[in-house]
Amino acid sequence: MLFFYLYGALRAIGKRHYGRMLAGSRISPRAAMSQARRLATVTPVQQVWPPPTFIDDGLRRVQPYHWTYNTYCKERWRGRQLIQVFESEFRDRSLDYYRESMEAGDVLINGKRVGPEYVLRNGDLVSHTLHRHEPPVTAEPIGVLHEDDDIIVINKPSGVPVHPAGRYKFNSVIEIMRAERPDGFMPHPCNRLDRLTSGVMFVAKNVAAAEAMTRKIKQRTVRKEYVARVVGEFPAGDVVCDQPILQISPKLGLNRVRANGKTARTVFRRLAYYEPRPGCRRGYSIVRCMPVTGRTHQIRVHLQFLGHPIQNDPIYANERVWGRSLGRADASGEETADEDIISRLSRMGKDEAAEAVAWYDQMVDEYEKRRAEKLTGEVCSVCMTPLYSDPGPHELSLWLHSRRYEDADGTWAYASPLPSWALPPEGVVGPTDVGGMEELVEAEAEAGELPADDGDMVAGAEAGAANTTKDGPPREEMGG
């Protein structure tokens, strides 16, 4: 009894303090948010271990399980009703579902039940407990290219996110490696690839090794090479693209070439060109790509600007978004205005085809409301959530592969085999291996120095920010 009395008294004091804090005290907004987070009641996240996973029909599946998402009120949510936020931000479930969840107490604010019309405030902690359905991913194993006491170099399969995000938790590289290794193993990714991008990744076994490798990558003492399968006949020889890149929609994670963007450079060299097959309008090229800077979606954006987007890129090779020109040499936006592109992406529904879905890993929580899987017409017997069919191969892969990483001083180099989509078609002669990066390095040196630029040089050209915060729970969103 004494415990509950003290607990209630502390909660009451916290509420009064929080009310005064928001009512016009002299505390700075940053301090107010920090104090609000310390006072907020975090709904406990259920411990689900070992992961309820199994392999079936070439896919790694997760049995549905109950889970609680915790997230703090974002700036764009403030002053809006709770139901309005769920309706606009988490569209993968119906409005009726969210209303019923709020009324049933499955959605809480600061640990308390509220109604759908509750108006969100700065510092509010939103908790959503739901029956979680993770999308299946490829059952292809995570290959190990090298391992020592500090670092594991892996060959990441396409279609598997690195970190838990959005609807993915146990079907992520981190959680798969945790489950496959002895108890207590905690992987620390040093570079991060988009969910659909495959290839070389560094995973440290301890924090010190992770910091050392991440520092090397950010300081550009590590070279990296990708291979891509692109539309049309890419020019022979070396092509250096120095076009600056600007993020035109932070919410959608959409980037374009713009004169007022951040400095970016990618060196390209064609590996092979294959003529159109019967029934195909255009042939395709296999292109080597060496990003010198590390802008988000840099390779994809530069290839699009050059008129040779990645052949199965759901965004940058999508005529429904960019028109027939696909954004080629459109640095000013005269042919396709930024507002038009953003509007077309925003209108895409959750039941549309895979080519209408953006795949930026950092924004996967946003895009899963327009996810690629198709509705089957069936519902879950536990939570009545609409069920989706399995994703097809084209929905699990982007034809962009992180092929090789090497230290600039020649100390080490790690390379992965070419993926099947980069090999010659059956009955056609073509390269099956690539070799070193000497030609790409020489081409970059001949291009001269890049101007200095304060920017977000991240771990890789297709990398994203880590999915954690310093003073709060992981940034996993509230949707299903």
Shape: globular
CATH architecture of the domain at 222-313 and 316-356 and 398-446: 2-Layer Sandwich
Strand content bin: 15-25%
Query: Helical proportion?
Result: 10-25%
What is the helix tally?
11
Low-confidence stretches: 1-40, 349-373, 455-461, 463-477
What is Rg?
A: 24 Å
Distance between the termini: 38 Å
- Would you give the CATH topology of the domain at 222-313 and 316-356 and 398-446? Pseudouridine synthase
Name of the top-level CATH class of the domain at 222-313 and 316-356 and 398-446: Alpha Beta
Mean pLDDT over the full residue set: 78
Largest sheet: 10 strands, mixed
Helix and strand composition category:
alpha+beta
Query: How many strand elements?
Result: 21
Features:
single chain; 480 residues; alpha+beta; Structural Genomics Hypothetical 15.5 Kd Protein In mrcA-pckA Intergenic Region, Chain A; Pseudouridine synthase; 10-stranded mixed β-sheet; 4-stranded antiparallel β-sheet; 11 helices; 23% strand; globular
Describe this structure in words.
Among the domains are: 36-137, Structural Genomics Hypothetical 15.5 Kd Protein In mrcA-pckA Intergenic Region, Chain A (Roll); 222-313 and 316-356 and 398-446, Pseudouridine synthase. The protein has 11 helices and 21 strands. The protein has helices spanning 2-22, 29-39, 82-89, 95-104, 173-180, 207-218, 298-305, 319-322, 338-347, 364-367, 438-446; strands at residues 53-56, 59-62, 65-72, 107-109, 112-113, 125-132, 137-138, 143-147, 151-156, 188-189, 198-204, 222-231, 238-241, 245-249, 254-257, 266-274, 284-291, 375-379, 386-388, 400-407, 413-415. Strands 8, 9, 10, 11, 12, 13, 16, 17, 20 and 21 form a 10-stranded mixed beta sheet that branches. Strands 3-6-4-5 form a 4-stranded antiparallel beta sheet. A 3-stranded antiparallel beta sheet has the order 1-2-7, with no helix packed on it. It is globular and about 65 Å long. The model is unreliable at 1-40, 349-373, 455-461 and 463-477 (pLDDT under 50).
